[in-house]
Amino acid sequence: MSKLPEDHKFLDLSDYGRPIARLIANALKSTAVTPIHVTFGFLISGVIAIWCMYYGYYWYAALFFILKSILDAADGELARLKDTPSYTGRYFDSVSDIVLNILIFLVLWRITNTDFALTLLAFLGLQLQGTLYNYYYVILRNKFHGDVTSRIFESGTPVAMVGEHQRNVNILFWWYKILYGSFDLIIYKLDAEAANGRRLPNWLMTAVSTFGLGFQLLIISVMLVLGWVNYIIPFFIIYSIFIFLFIAIRRSL
């Protein structure tokens, strides 16, 4: 199943794990395993990858980062197969992602002896890249009746869906706003009219999908196994320049 109707799909370079994720979701659809369980799985996989990265087991780190990306797609697939969308799952997924990203850059800071200010700059760049991708993707999904557990403007705590508890939604939404609120606000200020503009073309969405977390982890994995660990932080600082390029292109359409 897809987050978008068939005629509005684009080549999502960050979503390379989707085919395997569908197989996992189909294998679990008749079991007691829930999407939240799968999200816990990707959180554990990410922690293992970070541990491997810290101790220099870069091939294993890459393997678990890729597994994390696959499971990150599988939780949503399972939710759609079981028809159990939830804000709990949506916010738990996002909070887990940013916690892992923080740990990744803390480890990179330690193992590369990079200046902390540059490490922080790279982390902020990576988060803003991902936020722009998510912003455009959610706009597309809302316009064309795709998956709607993600909202264009996360301005207030949503009402819990059937099968989830409002208290859980409240807590996770609070954490989401603490961790992501500033990034959402910056991207919105940079391109406030995106939701009111023309349809985002598929070629642009494919280009922006290189900002998706799956593709970011793939880049980190490739650089690790190639022995380029010292270049990961500089790469994400430089690649953040494309945020302004993609926004300029979107505005020109």
TrEMBL record:
Keyword Acetylation on entry: no
InterPro entries associated with the record: CDP-OH_P_trans, CDP-OH_PTrfase_TM_dom, CDP_ALCOHOL_P_TRANSF_CS
Pfam families listed in its UniProt record: CDP-OH_P_transf (PF01066)
Keywords: Membrane, Transferase, Transmembrane, Transmembrane helix
Stretches that traverse the bilayer: 32-51, 95-111, 117-136, 203-225, 231-249
The keyword 4Fe-4S appears for this protein: no
UniProt-listed Gene3D superfamilies: 1.20.120.1760
Superkingdom of origin: Bacteria
Protein family (similarity comment): Belongs to the CDP-alcohol phosphatidyltransferase class-I family.
Protein name, entry field: CDP-alcohol phosphatidyltransferase family protein
Organism encoding this protein: Arenibacter arenosicollis
Source taxonomy: Bacteria, Pseudomonadati, Bacteroidota, Flavobacteriia, Flavobacteriales
